[in-house]
Amino acid sequence: MKLLHMEKVKDGKYLKNYELTYQNKAGHEKKYEIVSRHEISGPEAIGQHVSGVSIVAFHEGKMLLLREFRMGVNRFVYNLCAGMLNEGESLEECIQRELYEETGLGVKKIHSILPPSFAAVAFSDVKTQIAFVEAEGNFEDHTSENEQITADFYTKEEVRELLETEEFSSRAQIAAYFFQGVHDGNPSFLK
Q1: Would you list the domain boundaries of the chain?
Q2: 65 and 103 in contact (C-beta within 8 Å)?
Q3: Residue 153 or 180, more confident
Q4: Greatest CA span in the chain, whole angstroms?
Q5: Model confidence, pTM
Q6: For residue 114, how many other CB atoms are within 10 A of its CB?
Q7: What is the pLDDT of residue 155?
Q8: pLDDT tens digit string along 147-175?
């Protein structure tokens, strides 16, 4: 595959739309649309910026999940605490801010932060990092008027039930799956 041409087709408030023209393996042109949170100056800039963080948080052996209304799918889904990295903000500051804004909780300890990964490779170059943290404090609502979130900690048994009956974001679903123990490979962050 070879990128022949790229053109910005829309410059929205939060997302920029691009049309990419590739030469496919058969030598034909293929048009492909992507969205980005960042200005892409050229092919080398695609996927180079970390946009935010997803937070897998635990407290006393329970996993934090948010029941959150997501406008993009017009329904409530179970999700991880997550958010966008502000200009000049460190990833650690973003983790603390987002956890507090969405739940009222504080960060007791950051266990690990994974390297950046793509959030939706089928249509976007958005990159985020996943942080595993121990949370502390009490739930409080600090969300904006455009967010509807209920946060709670869940046992492995409760998470198992949610996985069978509720809709999740993909990252929250995979984190919940491993947390509740269906897979034999006990993740090291739970030890």
Answers
A1: 2-36, 50-182
A2: no
A3: 153
A4: 58
A5: 0.87
A6: 13
A7: 96
A8: 999 999 999 999 999 999 999 999 999 99
Q: Per-residue pLDDT for 96 more than 90?
A: yes
Cα separations in angstroms, 121 against 48, 186, 189: 13, 27, 26
Length in residues, the chain = 191
Homologous superfamily in CATH for domain 50-182: Nucleoside Triphosphate Pyrophosphohydrolase (3.90.79.10)
Instruction: Give the list of residues 6+ apart from residue 51 with CB closer than 8 angstroms, or none.
Output: 37, 38, 84, 85, 119, 126, 127, 128
pLDDT at position 182: 58
Candidates 130, 125, 141; CA nearest to 38 is 125
Distance, in Å, from the CA atom of 166 to the CA atom of 159, rounded to the nearest integer, reads: 10
